[in-house]
Amino acid sequence: MAYIYATENDRREMLDAIGAASIDELLEQVPADIRLDKALDLPAAMGELELTQHLTAMAGRNQSSRESICFLGGGSYDHFIPAVVDTLASRGEFYTSYTPYQPEVSQGNLQVMFEYQTLICQLTGMDVSNASLYDGGSSVAEAALMSTSVTRRHGKVVVPATLHPEYRQILGTFLENLGTKLVTVPMVNGRTSPADLAEVIDDETACVILQHPNFFGCLESVEEIAEITHQRGALLVIAFDPISLGRLKSPGELGADIAVAEGQSLGSPMAFGGPYLGIMACQESYVRRMPGRIAGETVDRRGRRCWVLTLQTREQHIRREKATSNICTNQGLLALRASIYLAAMGPTGLQSVADLCLRKAHFAAELIQQSPRFDLAWADPFFKEFVIRDAEDQVKPMLDRARRNGILAGLPLGRWYPELDDCFLVSVTEQRTRDDIERWCGCLSANNHEVCHA
Amino acid sequence: MNAEELLYSKTHEWAHVTERDGEKIATIGISAFAIEQLTDLVYMELPQTGQAVTAGESMGEVESVKAVSDLYSPVTGEVIDVNTSLVDSLETLGKDPYDAGWIAKIRLVDGGSIDELMDFEAYQKQCSEDG
Hints:
Strand order of the largest sheet of chain B: 1-2-3-9-8-5
Radius of gyration of chain A: 25 Å
CATH superfamily of the largest domain in chain A: Type I PLP-dependent aspartate aminotransferase-like (Major domain)
Order of helices and strands of chain B: EEEHEEEEEHEH
Number of helices of chain B: 3
Helix content of chain A: 25-40%
Order of helices and strands of chain A: HHHEHHHEHEHEHEHEHEEEEHHEEHEEEH
Largest sheet of chain B: 6 strands, antiparallel
Strand content of chain A: 5-15%
Number of strands of chain B: 9
CATH architecture of the largest domain in chain A: 3-Layer(aba) Sandwich
Number of domains of chain B: 1
Number of strands of chain A: 15
Structural class of chain B: alpha+beta
Shape of chain B: globular
Strand content of chain B: 35-45%
Distance between the termini of chain A: 57 Å
Oligomer: heterodimer
Shape of chain A: globular
Number of helices of chain A: 15
């Protein structure tokens, strides 16, 4: 298909077909006061060479995690991506395929979905997984809607303040016009108090959405909360960190009805915030209320193994206003990356990654506390993230200085939690070396000079 | 039950109304015609005992290999009994739609809107026009 800019002749033909004498006449129905009465203020057109140089220079101003020492977390993590992920996922058959509208002719894509679902079920200890959703935040919101549909309770959805603040924001948007109230339970020292939760869960509550490890990296009292939630007939949605399952109990073991996660950690780069991968799995009895597509295994008429999309009668292209969701899609390419990552790592590989994160995070936390300036904000057990309080209350200038020295030292928390304005969230992945951690600690502990002393 | 003695809704549910201790109770189900149109059934979601239902509004669903259809209540009232065994034997709906295939018993409230329902003859006419 040739790309040729619309010529004067093309424009003439189009205007003739519409019946307008000129483009100005065509636009006449747009009120004059909102029309721009001059040409757009753009620089002169560039040739390919100049444009490439211009864009390369612009891109060079980004500071990526690859050229920095990254301690950022809060939902997006700098985990290692084995080469096999890019090598396989960049094959043209996967890389360029669009969502299959006649799915059964795309057996390769369906097989990927099926294997992804299988891996997610093995990872989470849940019965069924869908073929993925947009990202962690929309998975949380979809889980809330699904819970109202399963329980037929539309009164409220309960979340602790330790659930990712951006997930809570997305949830608020989804629920805003549905008449379902979003009730936030305040945190107590970085965790959720089961007693506080018990006070707000009533017989109109569809679900409790618990992040574990939570936004601050702390482990929640999940089993106790599961019991309280189920006693009142509500569902427990657990938002988990996929990497943590190499070491921690799975959502299935902990009593989750629905398990959701941000899947970026599994073989996808941080990429300045997306595209990411929404994971969702649930117990089998809820499968008909689960949004998104599900690939199933079957046999063709010659008895050979093959794949189909199943439970399609509940999807939006067939059921419109009664569909399980009209705001979901799958992230095929990122689900593929997660599948390759999980298959390459295997259970022991994932356990090693989790153990390395756990140990390195605890090493970093101990090291930074040797400085009288820094302390852990609270004494809760944590996995790979922890919150540090700066006694000098200089979080922003300190982090800015570290960034200028090539260290993305942490995430300031004041933007979401004003009471934690003197705190920052630190994430330590398996990629951080002892040297990285010592440089990070040295830079933060240095006096407020321009250069960090490592 | 004799199909000719039942009442029918436009959405193909049947109702059989009896009186017990001064209360009107409707036993309801899906007509043989509708079951045949739905083809192979794979799943059914029943109403719940104690649930308040309104004539013409959804109270459950029936899923076939081709589509998911709402199960509408033909009457207004409160569900007092549900035939839970149907979920594991969907074939009963086709084999015996007017007896073993009953779905729920509903205690009528304020007459239950049964005046809106059709008799067998009127329903047959609707089916022949639909079919």
